[in-house]
UniProtKB/TrEMBL annotation:
The lineage of its organism: Bacteria, Pseudomonadati, Pseudomonadota, Alphaproteobacteria, Rickettsiales. It comes from the Bacteria. This is Lipopolysaccharide-assembly, LptC-related. InterPro entries: LipoPS_assembly_LptC-rel.
């Protein structure tokens, strides 16, 4: 075999080994993913997954996607525990939304339930909502509906930011138009601007 033929053989072998490696990796990972609705969802019912009370458990899960307006969202947690049907219990969930105009919204809490089919995150126990690092809100519980671009809370909400403070008995926020509507009595303290 001449040097030229041997070099071509080595180059083709390298490329082929990379393709085979990727195919093997995908074949091993394929049973853990569901590719319906152009979204990836995690199936934690694997026989290899650790269990708690006969329920599958995953450490540091990550759910992510893009909504119909090309806004990116991800939901991460310290731990996910299989509940009934497509519900997954989350410890310390954090939901991040990055809007097309690079404005960020983060929602975090101590506990949550992720409903994979409906794409709804129910969060409770010390819910914090941070909008573009300028405004911070605190409430007991909230529902983040990814499909309908809504964040809804029926408990008291306290917001503080550059312009002042606000307190209301509940809220409804639309992530598409980035507007928030308050329910019940609302108290506002506006900071004096220099």
């Amino acid at each position: 075999m001449t040097n030229r033929k041997y070099s071509r053989f080595v180059a083709i072998s390298k490329k082929l080994s990379i393709v085979i490696s990727v195919c093997l990796l995908l074949a091993l990972m394929f049973p853990f993913f569901d590719f319906s609705k152009s979204q990836i969802k995690l199936d934690i019912k694997s026989s290899d997954a650790p269990t708690i009370d006969n329920r599958s458990m995953v450490s540091h899960p990550k759910f992510y996607g893009i909504d119909e307006n090309d806004n990116k969202y991800e939901i991460i947690a310290a731990r996910a525990l299989e509940e009934i049907q497509d519900k997954i219990s989350l410890d310390h969930p954090i939901a991040n939304i990055l809007f097309k105009d690079n404005i960020e919204l983060q929602i975090n809490s101590n506990k949550g339930i992720w409903q994979q089919i409906e794409k709804v995150l129910e969060i409770n126990q010390d819910v914090n909502i941070i909008y573009n690092k300028n405004y911070k809100a605190y409430t007991k519980s909230a529902i983040f509906d990814v499909e309908n671009n809504l964040i809804i809370g029926a408990d008291e909400i306290n917001i503080s930011g550059d312009l002042g403070k606000l307190k209301a008995n509940g809220f409804r926020a639309n992530t598409l138009d980035k507007k928030i509507y308050f329910t019940g009595p609302v108290a506002v303290i506006i900071k004096k601007q220099n």
